Amino acid sequence: MTSRVGTSRMQGTYSSPTSGFYSIKVAGHLDSSWAEWLGGLTLVHQEDGTTLLSGLVGDQAALHSLLIKVRDLGVELISVNRVEAGPCSPGGDQVQTG
Fold this sequence. Notes:
Layout: E1 8-10, E2 13-15, E3 20-27, H1 34-37, E4 42-45, E5 50-57, H2 60-73, E6 77-83, E7 93-96
Antiparallel strand pairs: 1-2, 3-5, 3-6, 4-5, 4-7
């Protein structure tokens, strides 16, 4: 049996270890109109002047596509984190839920 990088075989189906909930932090406050273009992510304005983008990302290709869109916006990428639960935004104002 051959294995594919980035996938695991479990009971006859493939699952991507990179699918999951991601939190992406960018500099500045993005307008809520970008939420749909960014795959329906939730945008939360943080008190420190950043925006937290969060939501479910299907796989590695979808994550890379999302990061390309962030790059195309011309905003500074601060961090990308895979998280276990929903977004935590102490002190933030939720702008859009996707």
